[in-house]
Specification:
By secondary structure, this protein is an alpha/beta fold. It is globular. It binds 3-hydroxybutanoyl-coenzyme A (3HC) and 1,4-dihydronicotinamide adenine dinucleotide (NAI).
Amino acid sequence: MPDTATPTAPQGAGQIVTIERIGNVALVALDNPPVNAAGQALRAALIAAIEALEGTVAAIALYGKGRSFIAGADIREFGKPPQAPSLPEVVNRIEASTTPVVAVLHGVALGGGLEVALGAHARVVAGSVTVGFPEVTLGILPGAGGTQRAPRLAGVGPALDLITTGRRIGAAEAQSLGLVDRIEAGAPRDVALAMAEALAAGSLPHRRTSEIEVVPDPAALTAAEDTVTRRQPQLFAPRRCIEAVAASLRPIAEGLAEERRLFQQCIDSPQRAALVHAFFAEREVAKIPEAGATAREVAHVGVIGGGTMGSGIATAALLAGLRVTLNERDAAALDRGRATIEKNLAGAVKRGKLDAARRDDILRTALQTSVRLEDFAEVDLVVEAVFEDMAVKKEIFTRLDAIAKPGAVLASNTSYLDIDEIAAATSRPGDVLGLHFFSPAHVMRLLEVVVAAKTAPEVTATGFALARKLGKVGVRAGVCDGFIGNRILSHYRKAAEYMVLDGATPWEVDAALQDFGFAMGPFAVMDLAGLDIGWATRKRLAPTRDPRERYSPVADRICENGWFGRKTGQGYYLHGDAAPKPNPEVARIIEAARAEAGITPRNFTADEIVTRYMTAMIAEGARVLEDGIALRPVDIDAVFLFGYGFPRFRGGPMLYADTIGAGQLAARIEDFAREDPFYWRVPALIRRLAETGGSFADLNRGEE
Ligand code: 3HC
Ligand code: NAI
């Protein structure tokens, strides 16, 4: 009969650890849904189970119920007071057991989950498993012996690779590295029973990992340091990972103590808080008011427009296993669209994301092209990605209304235009929403799901289900010019342009923001995206521009020369075969603009550049919240993390805002407002938080 070992499990909780004694062996099943995170209750129950069984049976097998072995430590506990027993204590206790223990892995065994397995005396995979040390992506290091035991089993080089990259690997690679001993077919419990019996019978070898000698590999340590310095100079955790692995050459007790010390440093670092915030941001954004609505089935997607975005969106849908019909204005444009999709898929094959046979299959059976919109009668969901022109979009939606089957979802990929107005061109506005992809659409993870006034809840739910299917992060946005991301971008880009007018160079601005951690500075991004896009938007908005708004003519002057950035060979930068170089012609344009406006240029330090830029971003973020365009601050963070190259180790603009504090932000804005009271205004929300001592984190928790 199963008995339980849940002495400290919370009242009312299920049996987090269950023991089954069968003959002379025991099975210990872990059951902490959804992913078997090693929270305090699981840790306590696991130690209790080992202590209850040690010496009473010939062998013990640990396995996970549900979808995984153990997904790792409970990330929600980080930054809170530690609760005994710690995970290292659990792992050490398992390893010290005088009765041999085999860990049977399935689903995932990540971070602390893999560390528990490394503490066992043998490791066997049931079916398939993903293992790895994702800790570094959360700003920490494997803190339950992983940095000491992985080098003992796999060698210093492979351990450094896994620990500093967070790379996740499958069973075969784990076996070839020595991290697992065997791969068996079968359900976890069946494999657990067979392996416990094999241990008891002496046919499954076992040993204590910490008793294995580490083979020194100074070259691997130096190489890892070089890689980290080159690729991630701003990150704190990767270096601590290397230091911890280096300590594995010492006796195990000393190495474990050093690992603990470095782990604690990481836990205390602001980067850890930001990276954990980013982890949860990705998941929090799915919590929307429409989450209860039933998404409509989407198997066949229609894409209108095979340009930059349409071909990327089609590629993303094809990669996710959907059928796609692509529509263009004429056969030549269709051919260009198809060629781009083929190129994108070839890239996926090259990167190992898709095999060549599957690619051929997709191109043969899943992709159709047509110049006739009438061929969209059977599609489940349409994404329109034609020119950014309201008249063209309205005409398309009116036609779609007549063609699409009842219940088809009609989406626009517009960057800025009013989805309500587009929806009004149909007789079924409930079926219309914005699905704002980011370029390149088959790579960038963000998808703004723009909910218009009449969008039906199940249509919004369908947008989120599609995001999940495509492996994207769906973020709910309301209708306004630019939704969440581009609205905020339009605002802070002006701050960058004003700084250039007042004395900074575009290249200084880019360098300062790159040093802050952005993948690229704003001027380099504009060159990449095409300066013509912003130019068209400025022309569209010119009639409604407030005369009090300061206006920099620099970007328009660059465009008037036909210089649209990378695609024309020059913009803010000169783009040749070598790395982009500052464009001296742009320096002359800036000088002329300053002279015209009677501006005496002044110097801007990198700090000043970052301060103004980030303050502008946060201020518009606050207004986006006030207007209800974003549900929560964390939604804005996710938009910037997954769509705008915001440094993940800073968690997003609104988390960053909390590190400054609302009072300080209000004071900064008031200070800047002395120069330009139209642009710099303290948002009511920041004012309120400053007065009440509140934070954006409070708003995320629904407290205020
Ligand atoms: N701790 C706490 N909660 C976790 C968690 C963890 N380690 N892993 C997942 N969750 C939560 C998610 O937040 C989500 O909660 P929600 O439903 O309330 O949003 C729920 O579990 C399901 O997660 P996903 O939506 O991500 O489910 P998937 O099936 O897509 O993915 C997964 C499952 C592969 C396990 C993925 O969640 C994952 O990669 N988790 C993180 C694994 C990790 O980083 N482990 C290392 C932790 S650090 C550590 O172990 C330190 C140690 O060295 C001391
Ligand atoms: P693009 O100019 O590269 O492609 C537009 C395509 O639409 C062209 O191939 C054109 O032939 C086709 N087209 C025009 N009218 C058509 C019609 N009536 N029927 C069928 N096809 C038609 O433009 P891009 O960059 O792909 O932008 C498309 C939309 O996506 C725009 O609304 C834009 O604002 C939006 N967007 C653009 C992003 C970008 O970075 N380029 C990012 C996110 C959204």
